[in-house]
Each structure stands twice: as structure tokens, then as C-alpha cells.
Amino acid sequence: MAEAVANQRPPTTTDKPEPTERRIVPIEIIWDGIGPLYKNFFSNQAALTELSYGLEPHLNGPVQLKIRYDSQEFVGGIRVQVPPDGLKAPLRMDDGAVDLAALAPITTAMATYRDAIAGNYDVRVQSFHIGLDFFRGPVYCGVGIGGGHPPDGTVVSPCLSVNGNEVCGTLEGGLVRYPKEEWKRIRGCFE
Fold first, then answer.
1. Where do the domains of the chain lie?
2. Mean pLDDT over residues 155-161, rounded?
């Protein structure tokens, strides 16, 4: 028994688990219709850092974050513009269907960012729409979120804006299936 105790060595720093290193992805903000005061709000370093941590596992940088406000329509939006090589992992697709739920960690991080700005500065920011923009040659696909107001980003809408036209799909086996005549254009957005 004494021998077993004698063979134990004191713990060293290498015996401690390594802390998980959080990585950030650079974020470039594109302003559209946002005044100086709100630019200051949306530039909150703590909120942007948390957004960066949330986006890094899913997006290659730099991430283009477009923040806009239309003062004629009184509509605001926070959107990530995803270039062709922007996603770290391709979305799962199967003949006419795509796994949009895989985008939920991105939209959830964006909703958390929106809520942080609203909570710290102006509650009206919670009305800003959240979404992702995929531009692929002549095709644009806009992905939005669903859920109760304000949406928390965990539900990705099955309806896309394809070159300005709404195209809705149906949920089948965890994927969103789109009409065959629309799938050719939609598929290109996520390849």
C-alpha cells in the first residue's frame, strides 16, 4: 500500500486539461442607411467578438456582415454575405433538396449579436431581419429565419428569395425539398 502511494507523482501543469481555445474570424461590416450613432452601437467590440466566435466554426473569413436600414420602409436587416468558398463545410444536398438546418448555428450567432445590440442600446434593433445572402454568378439566394418574434435564429426558413422571387420548399427527412423547375437555380447557390 505504501508503495502505491510512493509511486504517485504530484500533478504537473501538463496533467491539467488544456483550455479550449476560441478562434475568431475577421468581420468586415458593410453599412447601408445606418447613421453614425447606430454604427457605433453595431460596432460594439464585445458583441462583435462573440459574433466572430459563433461564426468561426462555420465560415471562412473575412466575413462580410451587411447592416442596413431602409428609412422609407422602416425595415432593418443584418445579413452575412457568403461567397462561393465561404462555408467551411458544404451543405448536404440530395436531388432537389438541401439541409438548410445546417445554417442554424450561423443564424443563431447573428440573432445573438442582434439581441446584444438591442439589449445594450435600442430595443428596436430586435426588429432587424436576420439572414444569409449567397451570390453565385447571376443567381442570388437569400436565406431567412423563422420563429416567433424576435426569432432566435434556430429555425431557418424553408422559403428562399431567388433573384427576388420567393421559392418555398417542404421539409422531407431533415432536408428542404424544392420544386424541380427551381432546383437548378437553387442548387447553384449552395455548391
1. 23-90+101-168
2. 96
The pLDDT tens digits for 31-45 are 999 999 999 999 999
Pairing of strands 139-145, 129-136: antiparallel
Q: Are residues 166 and 153 in contact, defined by beta-carbon separation less than 8 angstroms?
A: no
Q: What value does the mean pLDDT take over residues 164-183?
A: 94
CA 175 to chain centre: 18
Measured between alpha carbons, how far is 145 from 151 in angstroms, rounded to an integer? 7
CA distances from 20 to 3, 17, 23, 105, 110 (A): 36, 9, 9, 19, 22
165/140 Cα distance (integer angstroms): 10
For position 173, what pLDDT does the model report? 85
